[in-house]
Amino acid sequence: MHTTLARSTLLGVFLAASAALAQGAPTGSTQGPTGSSQAPTGSTPMPADLPPQPPPQSVEPPPQPAYPPPPPPGYAAGYPVAPPPEQPGLVRQYAVGKRFAIIPGVFIPSSGSAGFSLGLEFSYGIDLGPVIVAPGLSLQGNWGGSVTAYSGLAIARVTLPLGSFGPFVEGGLGYGHVSADPNYSSGNLAWRAGAGFIFFFSPHFAIGIDVRYDEVIDTPYKGWTFAPLILLAF
């Protein structure tokens, strides 16, 4: 009876093992006393079993900085630029502002022989755009023949600046004193009218002429004065 029971037990263990193998148990063999097992053969993953990889991405070069074309002449950063201020002409530079002049000349009286004239002028030119107006003071002495005259006049000169050429007109009103032989001496109202021009060859050299008519009322003094104008600047 014991023999039959042992055979039945062995048969049951064998059938259980066979059933386990039939259900897909791993076929790897167990080796060694420690019970460690080798990896089943044929278990290397195939490419189809790997997770999908992202497609390779192309590397683009960094964008180049954009340099705008240079602005056209007269423009900066796309906006118009005001042109530099125009330099004033030489006559305007000379006639505007304070001016002091020593004016020698030739005096030709209405009667008698010619003589010599010397004048001092102080003026201040005011730029009014088309013209320059220069109010001032004139002190003048004339010596001609038997007549000597001294005058002090408030004057005004109006200059038309045309680049290097400057025509002008002038006038004055004040007091004059006249001495004449024999033993004549008198003073009265004096007046003047004149015109002339000046021309600049360079900022340092100019020439011109000033022609004046002077008279002291109710005296023998009346005549013309021709005064050359020479300007030397350093």
Structure characterization notes:
The N and C termini lie far apart (153 Å). It is rod-shaped, with a radius of gyration of 60 Å. The longest helix is centred in the N-terminal third of the chain and has 21 residues, at 2-22. The model is unreliable at 25-37 (pLDDT under 50). The chain is mostly beta strands. The strands form 2 sheets. It has an 8-stranded antiparallel barrel with strand order 3-4-5-6-7-8-9-10. It has 2 helices and 10 strands; from the N terminus they run αββαββββββββ. The protein has a domain at 90-232: Porin (Beta Barrel), CATH 2.40.160.
Rg is 60 Å
Helix content: 10-25%
Distance between the termini: 153 Å
CATH topology type of the domain at 90-232: Porin
Under the CATH scheme, which class of the domain at 90-232?
Mainly Beta
Mean pLDDT across all residues, rounded? 80
The percent range for strand residues is over 45%
If helices are DSSP runs of H or I spanning 4 or more residues, what is the number of helices?
A: 2
Strand sequence of the main sheet, in spatial order?
3-4-5-6-7-8-9-10
Low-confidence stretches: 25-37
Structural class estimated from helices and strands: mainly beta
Q: What is the ordering of alpha helices and beta strands?
A: HEEHEEEEEEEE
Tell me the major beta sheet. Answer: 8 strands, antiparallel, barrel
Number of strands: 10
- CATH architectural designation of the domain at 90-232: Beta Barrel
The gross shape turns out to be rod-shaped
